[in-house]
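Can't paste images in this forum, so I'm doing it all in text. The chain is below; anyone willing to post the predicted structure tokens underneath?
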Amino acid sequence: MAVQSTSNQTSALANRAVKDVYPVSRLVREARVLLEGSFPLIWVEGEISNLAMPASGHIYFTLKDEAAQVRCAMFRNRNNQLRFTPENGMQVLLRVRVSLYEGRGEFQLIVEHMEEAGSGALQRAYEALKHRLGQEGLFDQAHKKTLPILPKSIGIISSPDGAAVHDIVSVLKRRFPAVDVVLYPVAVQGENSAGQLIAAVKLADQRRDCDVIIIGRGGGSLEDLWSFNDEKLARAIFACELPIISAVGHEIDFTICDFVADVRAPTPSAAAELAVPDVQQYVLNFQRYQQQLTHIIRHRLTSEQRHLQHLHRALPRPDLILRQQTQWLTQQKRMLDSAWHHQLLNYQQKLDYLSVRLKHPKAQIDKLRSVLNSLSHRLQTAFRTQQKSVYQQFQSLQFRLQRQVPLPRIDEQQKLVQTLAKQNQRLILQQLQQAKQFLAQQMRTLAAVSPLNTLDRGYSITSKRDSGEVITTATAVSTGDEVLIRLHQGQLSCEVKKVDEK
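Text version of the structure:
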């Protein structure tokens, strides 16, 4: 029994030993999986050595420091994004994945991103400052000032010996020679350059001897342009009441100054083109406007002349009416004179006839003379009455003629238009006052139901950082999610460490 038990144990150990034997490939593969699963993407800094750049486009090198070294590989699809050429002895900052090369069983790093260690630190500081100032609202479009259409003077903050000033002045002279140029000489790189830039911005804002400011320099590395990433300079530009154009470096270069300025120009020459108009284009525009205005005036004069001619034809001619009335009065006078003369002749004939038949001439003559005097008086009375009637008709016609003349009616219509305009203005002011009162009431109502009043009492609004969805229950988030907590003043960016659904 003891011999059989020992034999069974030996057989079991042999079977288990066969099952637990790892081939090299399996061991290396599982080790690689274990390494890659244990380390996320990490940043590593070190010195390049044993650099190899074969025709395949991949880059192989050793990353080392004073105490250790590790093999690295950067494949072609990643090194296409490099902005510099790696060299032996160069200090670099790498974004890597920890892995294992199965072919040789060597521990290695797979490089996803590479940057120079010095510029990398500057780049991270640049991104951090950009994010912080952006959160404060220094880059908001609502704070941007509009450039003047026709400035009288341009201020330039740059190095007096640099090519940027020469380019700006050349473009200004070509596009708008009449503009004045005020140069604020500063150093554009070096230890004291940021302070000089800040002082120049404040001095230009204080003196107000220019309408717009151009701040900039030529191209260079991130270190060369670093003075334009100074936080105090950014705040000085933001506080400046004069509009500022930033023209730092080339089109691919971006600085904090570019984001906080009112306008960003890709080059100094482009900044000069943005600052002033093209005088030749202004002349062409003026000529075109002159032609358009001349055409409009001629068309308006022609239209008004036609309208005047129409009114002239529609209105009766006063001189013609007066001439007709004068002719009618002359004719009436002639008729009256003829009738009076004819009547006088008739009476004369009767008098002659009666004088022949009179037996007592003197008495008859006295009687006839009396009759004749009476008739003469009646005739004169009738003549005066007729003349008065004709004169009254003439005055009536003259009054009617004056009423036909449009000048009094035009005065009346003008007075009516002025009265209506005053009434319309009073109605507009009254409606505007009512609208203001209604708006104030609506604003008070809105303020009463505003969630901001709730925030003022110590409450907050929590939302997801990526989607902005408002969180009302604990089950809406998971551990590790990033959330934003909005307070009465400002907001907090937080990470969920624990979820309690109670």
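The longest strand covers residues 42-52. The two ends are 64 Å apart (CA to CA).
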